[in-house]
Amino acid sequence: MNDHLHTASRLAATGLPVMPLREGKAPFGNCRRCAENVCGGRPNMKTPGPCACPQPCHGWAAATTDPHTIGSPTWVRAWREAAAVAYHPGGAGLTVVDLDNAAAVAWAHETLPATRTVPSTRGEHWIYRGAMRSVNAVRPGVDIKSTMAYARWLGLGTGSMAELPDAVRALAVKEPSARPMLQAVHVPAPAGGGECPHRTPAYLHRGIAMAEQRITEARSAIHATVYRTFLAVLSTHGRCGCLTDNHIARLFIAAQGKGESPRHCTDAWANARTRLGL
Fold first, then answer.
1. How far apart are CA 105 and CA 178, in angstroms?
2. Which of 11, 97, 100, 223 is the most buried (most CB within 10 A)?
3. Is 56:75 a contact under the CB 8 Å cutoff?
4. What is the C-alpha separation between 125 and 111, in angstroms, rounded?
5. Strands 124-129 and 142-145
6. Each residue of 80-101: pLDDT tens digit?
7. When comparing pLDDT for 48 and 182, which is higher?
8. Structural domain boundaries of the chain?
9. What is the DSSP track for 109-125?
């Protein structure tokens, strides 16, 4: 069996969606049938697929765990031509912090919690459990690869995989151009002056992460999905004062990543607050 095919089959069996890479760490280009993405499969756009093409020609969106696809004749030919195996981190619920040089690695050791580390050509991959939006160049020599992105398979690495920390999520939060995106929700503290029941970091973090994922993974009815997600977050956390500017910015950025404008985000947030009487 081809070495790349063997590696890909083994990884897919563990739940990692895999795909072949050509020389230069590039995915296989669209075939004639899918040229210019006429088939509707758009791995670099906001709404990938669906596409029934049997070839691995849609970048990260082609990554799969299906053994029949991975071992099909068209994929076997691609594995023979491949220079490396890649995987879709977000599809496996993972995030790769790609550190491209020694300075970036030093920064990670000083700033981020320890996790599984894999040596790369020029630096290291730090792998966390949890998915988020992929962003390149969040700081010098640092890329985030998770949803709608691929990473080369470089081996198992060392260390225990940690949960995706807020320090990594915060790297993807860029200062929005419109101030309403960062406007905090000002609501009264719980009656009686008691502590917010949702201020437990794990509970709040999980809720915001799930909301981001719900928006990011939406394939249709984006407006409705964003509104319903905002409504769900506010119904749980809107009255206790635990939401911060950073939490709200994360939700707005996830929505804009699906094509929502800042105005639509602001309107959806305001409508959700009005419905809940906040």
1. 33
2. 97
3. yes
4. 15
5. unpaired
6. 999 999 999 988 999 999 999 9
7. 48
8. 3-84, 91-164, 179-276
9. HHHSPP-EEEE-SSSEE
